[in-house]
Design goal:
By secondary structure, this protein is mainly beta. About 0% of the residues lie in helices and about 50% in strands. It has strands spanning about 20-25, 35-40, 50-55, 55-65, 70-75, 80-85, 95, 100-105, 110-115, 125-135, 140-145, 150-155, 160-165, 170-180, 190, 195-200, 205-210, 215-220, 220-230, 235-240, 245-250, 255-260, 265-275, 285, 290-295. The strands form 6 sheets. Strands 18, 20, 21, 23, 24 and 25 form a 6-stranded mixed sheet that branches. Strands 3, 4, 6, 7 and 8 form a 5-stranded antiparallel sheet that branches. Strands 11, 12, 14, 15 and 16 form a 5-stranded antiparallel sheet that branches. A hairpin with a 2-residue loop joins strand 20 (about 235-240) and strand 21. It starts with 18 loop residues before the first strand and ends with a strand.
Length: about 300
Amino acid sequence: MLAGCNGFWNPPQGSTASTTTLTSSTASPAVNASVTLTATISPSAATGTVTFYNGSKSLGTGTLSSGTATLKTSFSTAGTLSLTATYGGDSNYASSTSSALSITVTGETASTTTLNASSLSPALGASVNLSASVSPSSATGTVAFSNGSTALGTQTLSAGTAAISTSFWTSGNQSITAAYSGDSTYAPSTSSEVPIDVGPHGSTQSSVSLSAPVSTIDTGVTVVLTATMTPPAATGQITFLDGTTVLGTALLNSGTAAFTQGFSTTGSHSLTAQYSGDPNYAPATSAVFTLTVTSP
């Protein structure tokens, strides 16, 4: 009889070390929802199989292809699970096990989320209160508010409701939703879109200038960029850009807005400040401020 566990021959493994990394298609699936687990083996030339585990329980096995193996599965019980993936090794590469991946399976009881706004036609820059109600009201967890793909904020549920206050600095139609995260009892849910028509900006001409205390800095050093409005009574938001790349935004205060930024790449950076406009003043864009970034 050939040597090996239980009388079966175990093929030898290679001596080259391998590493296994495990990811999941979602960190918070609902009970019985399909989840795809992906194991990535390095080096990618490794062949063989990967076994996926929930604790000590095997969920199934996937065959490696170009260094990855996948398994589609689902979980019938809500709670936090600790998943791992074990690569069995081959004639060149030794076996390895991933770090534990924690996912939270949410409950199977359905929930519904309803979103309301304090105004459906606010003026540009006006404060709007967004309120989400989750049913059943005993649901716990968080609600994330979004304007299309732009996150507006996240709040924790209290007695089945969560609310934020926000402003819109782009006129026209906005599509607002609220997404409930789910908990150990209730499944996630997303509200219907609430259309908000933000009023137009004013027609009075404005101008914005961009300045910085220096025109040359080293990589890793920050510089304060200051946008100054004319007239200074203008309110709203300034967006700071490096070419077409958005660096960040800041609200005007007494006609100025400041933003601190560092740069990791050397060369000339063409910086501008864009004013969003408000109910009285039209949008404006500054002239280009050239900042030269050098190596220290």
